[in-house]
Write a structure and sequence with these properties.
Elements lengths: L2 H18 L2 H7 L6 H25 L1
């Protein structure tokens, strides 16, 4: 597994975690989160970046 695939998979899993988990549960664990909107947007950015890295890793094979 290339570096792009493994890092992309990690980012996609983290992004999916932040997008799918309810904000209240995330805020209990991560007290520094201030806004549910920015938390979900950040998770979406991680998810898209992870998918892009996975696609790039597949294209390089």
């Amino acid at each position: 597994m290339s570096g792009y695939l493994s890092v992309g998979l990690l980012l996609a899993v983290l992004g999916a975690f932040f997008v799918l988990m309810p904000y209240e549960k995330l805020h209990e664990v991560f007290r520094g989160m201030r806004s549910p909107v920015t938390t979900k947007v950040g998770g979406a950015v991680l998810l898209v970046g992870g998918v892009a890295m996975i696609v790039k890793g597949i294209m390089l094979l």
